[in-house]
Structure formats: C-alpha cells, structure tokens
Amino acid sequence: MRPIWTGLTVTLKLATSLDGRIATATGESKWITGEAARLEGHRLRAAHDAILVGVGTVLADDPELTVRLPGRPVDQPLRVVLDSALRTPATAKVATGDTLILTVAEPAPVGGARIQSVEAEDGRPAPRAVLTALAKAGAASVLIEGGGQVAASFLRAGLVDRIEWFRAPILLGAEGLPCVAAMALAKLADAPKFRRLSAEPVGDDLWERYDALR
Ligand SMILES: NC(=O)c1ccc[n+]([C@@H]2O[C@H](COP(=O)([O-])OP(=O)(O)OC[C@H]3O[C@@H](n4cnc5c(N)ncnc54)[C@H](OP(=O)(O)O)[C@@H]3O)[C@@H](O)[C@H]2O)c1
Residue 123 CA: which ligand 1 atom is closest? Predict the structure, then answer.
C-alpha cells in the first residue's frame, strides 16, 4: 500500500460532521468531535513521525500540532506546514524550531521554523516532492490533518495510504467547509477508492478506518 519511491506511509485524519464538513462557513471548527475522539487523535499523532497541515489551517486555527497525552511523555513528531508564499506568521504557535515549513518561495525566516523550498506543482509544494523531503528528513510516516485543500491534493495525487475518520453526530450543511476540497474528477472510475477496515464508536462519535485500494 505504500508509495514505493519513498517508503513513507501517508495517513489522512479527518474530524468531521456526519455530512463530511470540517468547519462552519465562518471557519469555526473547535470542536466538532468530542473529547474521546480527540484523545484518539493525539494517540494517532504520537504514532506518526510527522504531522502535516496547510497554511490555511495555521491561519484559521493557530494549532500547536503537538501530542498531548495525559501522564505520558512522548517524542514529539515533526510539524510540517505547506506554505507556498510563506504566509505563516512568525508569531504562530508552530513557528518554532520543531517545525519544517515547505515552500516554493525563496526561503526567508519565519520565527524559529526550518524553511525548505521544494518542487512546485500549480504554484504550490508538489505532494510527491513533499513526501520526498519528509523521507529525507527521516520520517517513515506522516499524519495529514487538513485542511480540505491539502487533503484534496494528496488524494488527487493517489498518495493517501490510510484514512482515520472521526465523524460527529452533527450536520453542518452545504455551506460548511468540506473535508476534501475540489478534486476535479470527471469520472467515478477516477475516484480514489478505499476499503473499510473497521468502524467503532468513540464517545458520541464514529471512528472509521480505511486502507487505500490501488
Ligand atoms: N475539523 C478538523 O479537524 C479540521 C482540521 C484542519 C483544518 N480544519 C479547518 O479547515 C480550514 C482550513 O482548510 P483549508 O482547506 O482552507 O486550508 P488548508 O488545506 O489547511 O491549507 C490550504 C492552503 O495550503 C497551501 N498549500 C501549500 N501547498 C499545498 C498543496 N500542495 N495542496 C493544497 N494546499 C497547499 C495553500 O496556500 P498557499 O498557496 O498560500 O500555500 C492553500 O491555500 C479551517 O477553517 C480549519 O479550521 C478543520
């Protein structure tokens, strides 16, 4: 199931409403899923070498992207931000030395984060180049935590090996932000396909796990 050219396992984590939305139209997303699902989210982070988000999520939520598990010190995964034009504020919580910002711009300081330029695709860090950079940084696994645009890029490129989907029993409607942005699919046959491994309740939410079918 792994892309042979890097050996890196790519997991997409989604925390959504029943209708697959990750935020309201105004961008409110904390917290769609409950405490038990969030705890599993931290366990998933701890099980990966890197956690990746797009700059949209950094600007909207200013996340810490750290593992926070009660009573358990852990090695923190590498935090990775995809940021074509270096829009990450120097004051962002991720703008420290534990973070790698992958860009297509000329590297320039962003707080204490490491900045690396990678190959571009449509003016943004190319998903394959991102995985190559992470493999070179020593990561064997990456957890993609959104948002919808980054999820769509990796799905469209056929690079998602697993999905960990936490679905809360609320509905946000069509104006809510979809967990996967536009993928420009013309045919059903071109859709990325997955096999469900399990579905179990976690608190009030449902946790579905999927493996890519290739
Ligand atoms: N419910 C949840 O668990 C959850 C999780 C995460 C996010 N969210 C919500 O999702 C929203 C943000 O989602 P979003 O879709 O707007 O942002 P996003 O996917 O986090 O970031 C998108 C931005 O990343 C940059 N980017 C760089 N390389 C990219 C690539 N290869 N593919 C795609 N994007 C790339 C682009 O900006 P540049 O062109 O400037 O680089 C793009 O606009 C927020 O409202 C946040 O609260 C919810």
Answer: 39
